[in-house]
Amino acid sequence: MKYGIVAFPSKKLQDLANTYRKRYDPHYALVTPHMTLKDPFEVDESDVNKISEALSKIASEFGPLHIHASRISSFFPVTNAIYFRIEPTEQLVDIHTAINEAIPAGEEKHTFVPHITIAQKMTDSEHDDILGQLRMTGVDAEETIDRIHLMYQLEDGSWTAHETFRLIGNR
Amino acid sequence: MKYGIVAFPSKKLQDLANTYRKRYDPHYALVTPHMTLKDPFEVDESDVNKISEALSKIASEFGPLHIHASRISSFFPVTNAIYFRIEPTEQLVDIHTAINEAIPAGEEKHTFVPHITIAQKMTDSEHDDILGQLRMTGVDAEETIDRIHLMYQLEDGSWTAHETFRLIGNR
């Protein structure tokens, strides 16, 4: 089964992201706006309890995540996804590393760039157009996320929550 | 903010429900297939911790839910929603009662009929047509759900997971 690990920002920031995703992101209907902490990975359903245990341990070590969505940026030319850039704090980098060390399945291919995707799968010219517009609007939101979620994917591509982990530590 | 309490069946049963929802349920993209344990209710975001505590207590009392999706039925003429009927066991009725007693917000208007919606918002003639077809196919799935979820709704109508509660008791 395919799993992923995410943090959902506040309703307010999700609503803001959705105003863009509705128009520009074909994944809009598959999952609500999120910051990915571990890219989707395949794991046997019988091994999910080990993953839960690993995440419980991590969640007992880390405190709520302070995030600052500071500007609108793009992964172009690697992909043409546009996103709210989240400042890569030591805390975010550390929890990302901790998760990927504890759960080696489906290793990360890229450097970790914390972000919330708001547009993707456009043509190059749409991308340039939309990025130009969105950059002018910008984003500036600071908040605290006190939990992370283990999600799994259904056959139609949509994601269901498997489990929540409250961040109750102080790293 | 609007909250709801649900139990997600297995991926297999969700995938089956989605084969119908994709075609017949306009709420398809807003949330993955689920059995509602408490209808959507408004509660101030600052009160959500009280709700979490109440659900933690209930989840410590109840064991995993045994469900049997036994046939395809309809709420017609109250609404024209078509659903997998879940046999209303004492356990399901009890957890539904416990949740609604512990969280009085937005009291339930109907008798509790455990179900997973697979089609809704059709015209009456579409409803009759589809119900006839689906009844012939039927459904027969028994399984165990070991957790419940507190969800909240975004402005666009989609639902995000707030918290999971593992059912670790023995009621």
Q: Kindly identify the CATH topology of chain A.
A: Cyclic Phosphodiesterase, Chain: A
Question: For the terminal residues of chain A, how far apart are their CA atoms?
Answer: 31 Å
Measured by DSSP, the beta-strand proportion of chain A falls in 25-35%
So how many helices of chain A?
4
Coarse structural class of chain A: alpha+beta
Q: Give the biggest beta sheet of chain A.
A: 4 strands, antiparallel
Pair with the biggest interface = A-B, 26 and 26 residues
Which bin fits the share of residues in helices of chain A?
A: 25-40%
Quick rundown:
2 copies of one chain form a homodimer. In chain A, 32% of the residues lie in helices and 32% in strands. Chain A has 171 residues and is α+β, with helices and mostly antiparallel strands.
Written overview of the protein:
Chains A, B: It is an enzyme of class 3 (hydrolase). 2 copies of one chain form a homodimer. In chain A, a hairpin with a 5-residue loop joins strand 7 (147-153) and strand 8. Chain A is of the alpha+beta class and 171 residues long. Chain A contains 4 helices and 8 strands; from the N terminus they run E-H-E-H-E-E-H-E-H-E-E-E. The mean pLDDT of chain A is 95. Chain A has a single domain, classed as Cyclic phosphodiesterase (Cyclic Phosphodiesterase, Chain: A, Alpha-Beta Complex).
